[in-house]
Design goal:
Layout (H helix, E strand, L loop, with lengths): L1 H15 L10 H12 L23 H10 L25 H10 L6
The structure holds heme C.
The site of heme C has 25 residues, from helix 3.
Length: 112
Amino acid sequence: MRWIGCCTVLGIAIAAAGCQSGPELSESAQRGMKTYFQICIACHNAKPSLDGLGPPIARSSRALIEARVVYGTYPAGYQPKRKSFAMPAFPNLAGNVDDLAAYLAECCPAKK
Ligand code: HEC
């Protein structure tokens, strides 16, 4: 019985998060998830820890997300996963960086 209950809860969480999240996302991460599925999903994998047109970005630091998304650059000394510059900057998302960082941190526990 306990096992069934657990699966039901997990199933709802997975459905709500588009198949890539753990059961509990913070409110900030839920907002970030919306942005991710509106914009980033065009190129990045629905599961942010996997490769897509763009590289995996799960657990990216806030500094990296801000630099790459808002300014189209990388933090000083950061070794980019790809050498291309196919991704445009989204300066309009400056206010969404915290939420995106929360989502990318919470979406995919390490080793998945
Ligand atoms: C038009 C396709 C496209 C969209 C839309 C896009 N990306 Fe990217 N992203 C890429 C590609 C391709 C790269 C690899 C570098 C490059 O070519 O610009 C990348 C690289 C990145 C990196 C750097 C990864 C690393 O460690 O080197 C981050 C972080 C990132 N994207 C986050 C996002 C976020 C967050 C969004 C949504 C707000 C987003 N991207 C939307 C295509 C995209």
